[in-house]
Amino acid sequence: MSPPPRVILLSDEHWARAGLRAELRERGVDAVGVRDVPEALAQARADASRGRVRALVIEQHGLADEVEAAMLPRVRTRLGDPPMILLAHATREAPAGPWDVVLRRPVSIGEVADALGRDARPNETPDQLGRHVPVRI
Fold first, then answer.
1. pTM score, two decimals?
2. How far is CA 56 from CA 53, 86, 91, in A?
3. For residue 4, what pLDDT is reported?
């Protein structure tokens, strides 16, 4: 049996990571929470038996500074070029980045999970998964 799809959640807030991880795990996704960009980069060396990373979800406030934001293309490459979803502040401008989708706060945990769409569904082969991340909000 193949491993469940893996999604990395970057947020400096424990409860934001925990809530989204719980929702995704109920949907059959191996959700991994990280606090910052260097920790996300370390996931590139994580156990390959856990499956490939299908998406990277990033809280805007989880980006400590411009230096961390500048590391994101490298993180994306090391993780196998997964789609990137930014959870942006409601009132601040979203930082420039390699975002496939930008969701503005307020957004529910379910809406974030739904935005992952096909990339968060288990039991689909990689050739059935495109880079497009559909969003339903």
1. 0.79
2. 8, 9, 22
3. 84
C-alpha dist (Å) from residue 60 to 2, 84, 86: 32, 12, 6
Distance CA(76)–CA(78), nearest Å, equals: 6
Residue 86 β-bridge partners: 58, 102
Distance CA 127, CA 23 (A): 25
Cβ–Cβ contacts within 10 Å for residue 91, how many? 7
Strand order in the sheet with 53-59: 30-34, 6-10, 53-59, 84-88, 101-104
In a 13 Å sphere around the CA of 16, the CA atoms on its Cβ side amount to: 20
Tell me which DSSP letter residue 4 carries: P
pLDDT tier at 48, thresholds 50, 70, 90: low
Pick from 15, 14, 43: nearest CA to 30: 43
Could you identify the residue written with the tokens 């945990």? 109
Q: What is the amino acid identity at position 93? A: E
Task: Answer yes or no: is pLDDT of 86 > 60.
Answer: yes
